[in-house]
Recover the amino acids of this structure.
């Protein structure tokens, strides 16, 4: 089963995405900040990561910098799900290797699923 | 016999001597080039030499026997005669002599008394010196002197004016808050103002007349010298970082005389450090605000969506109705916050994020395509008219221009009823590209047209149709277009539709910078 690691700190979002994604048949793992995310991805080796930007302890961009240093981790496709959407941030994410991004207020859960499908069949 | 003969001899020798002396005197008198008169003590001319005849044009017969006053200014001559008789002689007195044609000739008069053996005054010699030429020379000299004085005064005035202008300019340059450096035609530093000294932490006397490579030796100036290069290519508002916390905007302007002669280069340093800090703070605030405001809204959006799509279990018809309303209400809120966030980011128009040369046509096409679905849903025909030929590249901030295009198309689609037509067309000339968005929708009533671009404006006729809009869209769009140096305008008639146009300049910003300056 395809493993998706959701790194997000908002409880409601976690709840909604878990529900939606498991309905689609994905195995959903959750981390609530960058550090926990880093630890979890090393343990489970997800097929795709849904990554929030603004999180306590270690944010999404910082996490991607850490992932870039690791040969295995940097191969995992990352889709940014964010609510700040500043051009500076998105450019940085792209630079660091993010495959896609979306702003939560502009997309629905179904559209998130579609973006995931684009990255992993 | 011998005695008488000797006496006779002596007398004849004396007579000969006398005759010879008389002849000598007569020759001298006749030769003398200056006019000389012999005048009796009563003022009658007894004798006049040829020079006097010449100067007056009279013949001896017309002169001798006449009173001397007849030939001179009467009163003045009378005074001179009196003076001569009382003093014994006068010298160099100026008076006018009148010639035959009554012309006044300025002369200098000298006299000397003649006395007989008894010491009685028998008359006086009067000699003249013609002053005409010297008078003329004097006058010429005076005229030349006056002319020269005028020229000197004019020159002095011009010099004073130039000096004043120079001082004015100098004062402006010295007090200018931006740093100014001027390099001469040999690309050596000719001037640096106090602001530049302060910004670059350098003293004028250390670098004056230095070349670019010499400037490079001073620590901290490398970013500047690197940016300037060796040839002083034109630079427009390039950011360079001198120290950690000092960021300068660098611009260069060639100083030309007559379009082809280069006098030198003007280098301007504008301190944007504080602006950059503020920009960064603003950006951070917007980022944080965006996130904080959007988080709860996205939670609501996703929950409502999933409810409506049945992902959270079945819902009744009545429940669906309320959920949909909540969803739409929430969408409105999201739109409002988007507008407010955009507004905050672009009000400071100067700082367009990464303006770059772009393919405007492609950008418009992209946005048009993104509205195809929505237009189809409303049964509105969406048309895109490209131009023949290739649109010139335009320097723009892609994200913001896309926003502007979106706003216009969004309005057109929103305010056109079902079955309507929205046409997007492109045009260009050598100076600019133009986008037009035309619809045949509700239009803007004439009495409201003035306020179309103001903050929070919404046409009265649309508020009834659709209360969703924030009224910020066109205000933001106008700011974006004008920040790019473009123009935005529209034509509209109530119930007939509107056409919105905007232009973006093709020419380099450098020319407009020069205009400002």
């Amino acid at each position: 089963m395809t493993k998706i690691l959701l790194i997000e700190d908002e409880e409601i979002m976690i709840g909604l995405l878990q529900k939606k994604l498991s309905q689609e048949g994905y195995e959903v793992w959750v981390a609530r900040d960058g550090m926990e995310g880093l630890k979890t991805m090393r343990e489970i080796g997800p097929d795709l990561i849904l990554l929030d930007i603004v999180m306590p302890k270690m944010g999404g961009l910082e996490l991607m910098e850490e992932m870039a240093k690791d040969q295995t981790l940097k191969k995992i496709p990352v889709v940014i799900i964010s609510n700040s959407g500043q051009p500076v941030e998105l450019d940085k994410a792209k630079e660091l290797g993010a495959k896609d991004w979306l702003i939560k207020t502009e997309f629905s859960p179904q559209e998130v699923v579609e973006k995931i499908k684009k990255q992993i069949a | 016999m011998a005695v008488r003969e000797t006496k006779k001899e002596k007398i004849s020798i004396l007579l000969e001597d006398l005759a010879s002396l008389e002849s000598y005197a007569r020759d001298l008198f006749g030769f003398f080039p200056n006019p000389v008169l012999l005048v009796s003590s009563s003022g009658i001319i007894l004798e006049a030499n040829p020079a006097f005849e010449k100067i007056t044009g009279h013949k001896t017969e017309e002169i001798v026997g006449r009173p001397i006053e007849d030939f001179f200014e009467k009163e003045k001559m009378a005074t001179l005669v009196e003076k001569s008789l009382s003093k014994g002689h006068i010298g160099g007195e100026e008076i006018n002599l009148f010639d035959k044609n009554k012309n006044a000739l300025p002369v200098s008069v000298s006299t000397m008394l003649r006395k007989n053996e008894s010491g009685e005054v028998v008359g006086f010699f009067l000699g003249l010196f013609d002053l005409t030429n010297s008078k003329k020379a004097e006058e010429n000299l005076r005229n030349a002197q006056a002319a020269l004085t005028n020229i000197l005064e004019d020159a002095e005035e011009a010099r004073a004016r130039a000096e004043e202008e120079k001082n004015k300019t100098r004062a402006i340059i010295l007090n200018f808050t931006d740093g100014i450096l001027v390099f001469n035609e040999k690309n050596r530093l000719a001037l640096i103002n106090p602001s530049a000294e302060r910004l670059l932490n350098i003293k004028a006397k250390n670098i004056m007349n230095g070349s670019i490579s010499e400037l490079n030796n001073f620590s901290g100036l490398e970013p500047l010298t690197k940016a300037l290069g060796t040839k002083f290519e034109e630079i427009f508002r390039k950011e360079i970082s001198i120290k950690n916390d000092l960021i300068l905007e660098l611009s260069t302007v060639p100083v030309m005389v007559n379009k082809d002669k280069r006098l030198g280069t003007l280098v301007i340093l504008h301190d944007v450090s504080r602006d950059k800090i503020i920009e960064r703070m603003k950006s951070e605030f917007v980022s944080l605000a965006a996130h904080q405001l959007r988080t709860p809204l996205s939670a609501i959006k996703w929950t409502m969506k999933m409810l409506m799509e049945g992902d959270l279990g079945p819902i009744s018809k009545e429940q669906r109705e309320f959920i949909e309303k909540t969803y739409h209400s929430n969408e409105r809120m999201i739109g409002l916050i988007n507008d407010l966030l955009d507004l905050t980011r672009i009000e400071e128009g100067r700082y367009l994020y990464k303006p770059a040369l772009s393919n405007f046509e492609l950008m418009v096409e992209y946005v048009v395509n993104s509205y195809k679905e929505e237009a189809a849903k409303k049964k509105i025909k969406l048309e895109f008219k490209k131009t023949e030929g290739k649109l010139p590249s335009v320097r723009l901030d892609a994200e913001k221009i896309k926003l502007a295009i979106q706003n216009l198309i969004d309005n057109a689609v929103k305010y056109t009823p079902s079955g309507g037509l929205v046409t997007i067309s492109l045009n260009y000339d050598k100076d600019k590209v133009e986008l037009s968005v035309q619809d045949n929708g509700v239009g803007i009533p004439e009495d409201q047209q003035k306020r179309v671009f103001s903050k929070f404006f919404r046409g009265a006729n649309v508020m009834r149709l659709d209360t969703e809009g924030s009224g910020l869209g066109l205000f933001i769009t106008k700011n974006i277009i004008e920040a790019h140096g473009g123009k935005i305008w529209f034509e509209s008639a109530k119930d007939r539709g509107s056409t919105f146009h905007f232009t973006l300049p093709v020419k380099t910003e450098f020319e407009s910078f020069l205009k400002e300056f």
Residues 9-82+92-119 of chain A form a domain with the Rossmann fold fold (CATH 3.40.50.2300).
